[in-house]
Design brief:
CATH superfamily of one domain: Lumazine/riboflavin synthase
Number of strands: 13
Radius of gyration: 55 Å
Oligomer: single chain
Structural class: alpha/beta
Largest sheet: 5 strands, mixed, barrel
Strand content: 15-25%
Shape: elongated
CATH class of one domain: Alpha Beta
Distance between the termini: 104 Å
Length: 404
């Protein structure tokens, strides 16, 4: 029998399938609200429909509390959320995270779309972020020439580190020309190479007023900048695309100045502290080395420098005597072995055998050794070799032993 699933397993499996779908994980949906119910817990339940279909929706209190308007039946809205399954009822529904009235949500949608695109391309990756210089010689300020932003940055710079040079690059910070001017300023500062860090600054405003900093051309200019860029656009709660792409995001222009420009008094105090630590460390090192030198001077190696040499000479003489004795022992053994071998060779020598009365008989005709009387003819001339000479004779009579 095939494996039988329970209802809970089916619902859980369908939920997992939907949760893994990228399209279902982040949706923008336009429709009309109906069957709207506000629960006392703060959650909102309603149906989103168009001319042909509908989908059940829920917006939990954590997201509903951020709404700037009160939803109502018949209202047309644009919703951001994700689709999932409510396992208990086996019902899929749209879980709403953001909601805005239809007609004014185009900028929000464009913002999210560009944000997603640049994120997927890696423009927000921490690995691409550049480190800010510890003590910049010059800081580039890309902002409007009017307003309080420039004055605030100048005041903070003068108070913290007056010697750091500020280079103001005035641009439009809102309007149709703003994005192009901001992008051009970043590129020009990179070409000139006259600053060590760039602050991109603007005061607070609405989404429409800050839109220049959400343009793709600005984002790519920040990403391609060789010089580190600090984005300080709007108030602390305002987020723009430039904030995500920049190497550092500051909550306000004033905070950006404090991040980029160190405080002279703090640096001076730190330098003095490091100087004191360096002097103390050097003094301790000198004292340790001096103590080590005194220990070496007091050692026997310095008080009696030749003592070790004399000891090694005596050791060498002892080793020389041992070596000479060992060599004599080896030579004596080799001499004994040689005498033994000579004795063995002498015992096997033909001359030694012949000295005991033996001889070697050869035929004078062919010089061959006679090994049997059968090989000798009567009256054949023979040579008898003894240990001390040779006898020439003739075989007058040949007798063969019986039985051979």
């Amino acid at each position: 029998m095939n494996y039988v699933l329970s209802v809970s397993e089916i619902n859980r499996y369908i939920k997992e399938l939907i949760s893994k779908d990228m399209i279902m994980s982040g949706l923008w949906v336009r429709g009309e609200i109906s069957n709207y119910k506000y629960h006392y817990s703060g959650h909102m339940y309603f149906t989103l429909k168009d001319e042909k279909c509908l989908i059940k929706c829920v917006m939990f209190k954590s997201h509903a509390s951020a709404l700037k308007f009160e939803p109502e039946n018949g209202g047309r809205v644009i919703i951001k959320g994700y689709v999932s399954v409510f396992e208990r009822d086996g019902q899929y529904q749209l879980y709403v995270e953001e909601m805005q009235p239809d007609g004014i949500g185009n900028l929000h949608m464009a913002f999210e779309q560009l944000k997603k695109k640049l994120f997927e391309e890696g423009l927000f990756d921490e690995a691409n972020k550049k480190r800010l210089p510890f003590l910049p010689r010059a800081v580039g300020i890309v902002t409007s020439s009017t307003g309080s932003v420039v004055r605030d940055i100048i005041n903070i710079s003068s108070r913290r580190f007056r010697e750091i040079e500020l280079k103001i690059f005035p641009v439009a910070v809102q309007g149709e020309q703003a994005a192009g001017q901001i992008s051009g300023a970043i590129k020009k500062l990179n070409r000139l190479g006259c600053v060590d860090v760039i602050i991109l600054a603007r005061g607070g405003g609405s989404l429409e007023e800050l839109w220049a900093f959400n343009e793709e051309v600005v984002a790519r200019s920040i990403f391609n900048s060789v010089i580190p860029v600090v984005s300080a656009v709007g108030h602390e709660t305002d987020y723009t695309i430039s904030d995500f792409v920049a190497d550092v995001r500051a909550p306000t222009p004033s905070a950006a100045a404090e991040i980029v420009i160190p405080e002279r008094a703090v640096l001076k105090e730190r330098i003095m502290l490091l100087e004191a630590r360096l002097k103390n460390g050097a003094s301790a090192k000198i004292q340790n080395e001096r103590a080590q030198l005194e220990r070496l001077r007091a050692s026997s190696a310095f008080r009696q420098p030749y003592d070790r040499l004399y000891q090694e000479r005596m050791r060498l003489d002892t080793l020389n005597r041992y070596m000479h004795k060992a060599m004599l022992s080896v030579m004596e053994k080799k001499r004994s072995d040689l005498s033994l071998l000579i004795g063995k060779l002498d015992a096997l020598s033909p001359l030694s055998i012949m000295s005991r009365g033996y001889g070697v008989i050869r035929s004078l005709e062919d010089g061959e050794v006679v090994r049997s009387v059968k090989a000798v003819r009567e009256n054949e001339r023979l040579s008898v070799e003894l240990f001390d000479g040779k006898i020439i004779c003739r075989a007058e009579d040949i007798k063969i032993n019986p039985g051979l």
